[in-house]
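Board work, copied verbatim: Palmitoyltransferase
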Amino acid sequence: MGVLCSVIRFENLHELRRLCHWGPIIALSVIAICSAMAMIDAVLWYWPLDTTGGSINFIMLINWTVMILYNYFNAMFVGPGYVPFGWKPENSQDCMYLQYCKICQSYKAPRSHHCRKCNRCVMKMDHHCPWINNCCGFQNHASFTLFLLLAPLGCIHAAFIFVMTMYTQLYNRVSFGWSSVRIDMSAARRDPRPIIPFGLSAFAASLFALGLALGTTIAVGMLFFIQMKVILRNKTSIESWIEEKAKDRINYYQTKETFIFPYDLGSKWNNFKQVFTWSGISEGDGFEWPVKEGCHQYSLTIEQLKQKADKRVRSVRYQAIEDYNGACCPLTKGLRTFFTTPCTEEPRIILCKGDQILATRGLKQWMYGEKITDLATDDQCRNDETSATKNGGPWTGASSQDGKRVRGWFPRRCVEKCLYDSETDQPLDGEKKTR
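↓ predict structure ↓
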């Protein structure tokens, strides 16, 4: 009893709440349906107790299910690893190269990012995955990627069984003639071995499971190739985006500086070994990483600080002219706004008439930005960042630590540009420059 209590702790029971989310519910339902139907159809098509091939086929099905669930729950419950609350580098002078997270009350370690869903700074964050209701990062990147590999392989095996079962069962029930085709789903050929009756409902269930298996193979297979692409370059999805923004920033200001991604070790095999190890946890401690020659531990974080300063310098100030209740698909803001809502889990901003927002990027009918809660703080923050960007140095972000930041999407028709804003001639990210 004491051993059981030591295993089932409050923290473990609290983690079980991750299952109460639409992502894990759908993912586990698909796994359960495909696995159960594949085992049932395997009994109908290739009876496992008669031949060696049938036994191997059935054992492989069970093996796929176990490995898929093992890696899935590893990715969900082991988690990505979080930066400890109040963390800061050993050398206090290195703090100037790092962003500060006012929510976690700590500095963001290299390669870490704050996740709004988890409300923590995640080590080597790749993305927040709704299907595991957790982040993919330092500790679970390998398990998550193996799940993305094993799920399509298991679904391909299951899909083959579904097709062969429907073919063989229908073949025993279909009479082919030159002028007509007679299908009798009720007259099943009896077999002395104990098999599950294959009627119309079983056929429909197998067809439905086949559709799930093929859809999962395509969707999850594409995610696997995307993950492997960034892993072989020793990047994360977020770092790939940071690298693209670095090129855009350099081109925009026409500077002579060059940005070299510091963590690409030059060899795909060496990059591969940074994630896939025998322990299942990526190489390193989550705070320090091997870097390319000519770079140092804070090459990427310095670029992030420059981009953060540049983002606010190039932002445009808008004022709300209509109220907006934060609905994901607002009907009262027009059909175009309703049907073009951003397909993202990023939040929406509730706006009241007169609110001011710094917009940083935009779509045709929607914009993304940060609500200004303190104009004096914002002006000081903008001046500090402008100075940092022009001087080519990092901005520590001290002014942004005060007050709560409210960021998200809002309909473009609800705001108008502030004419007195000194940065109104700057285009938003994603919009063409008009000069």
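Confidence is low (pLDDT under 50) at residues 1-10, 175-195, 384-403, 430-435.
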